[in-house]
């Protein structure tokens, strides 16, 4: 099961998106959240990357 959240942020003239994905740690097996703020066109690449 994967959690995927995307929120749009607008700062001045730039349009940014904050993407959050849940990844499983290979060392401990526990799940953790990875957050990143990026341009909207890079969100799918971020979420599909392992």
UniProtKB/TrEMBL annotation:
Q: Which domain of life is it from?
A: Bacteria
Instruction: Extract the InterPro entries matched here.
Output: DUF4295 (IPR025379)
What Pfam families does the annotation carry?
A: DUF4295
Name the UniProt record assigns to this protein? DUF4295 domain-containing protein
């Amino acid at each position: 099961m994967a959690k995927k959240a995307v929120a749009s942020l607008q700062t001045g003239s730039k349009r940014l998106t904050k993407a959050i994905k849940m990844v499983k740690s290979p060392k401990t097996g526990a799940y953790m959240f990875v957050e990143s703020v990026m341009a909207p066109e890079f969100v799918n690449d971020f979420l599909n990357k392992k």
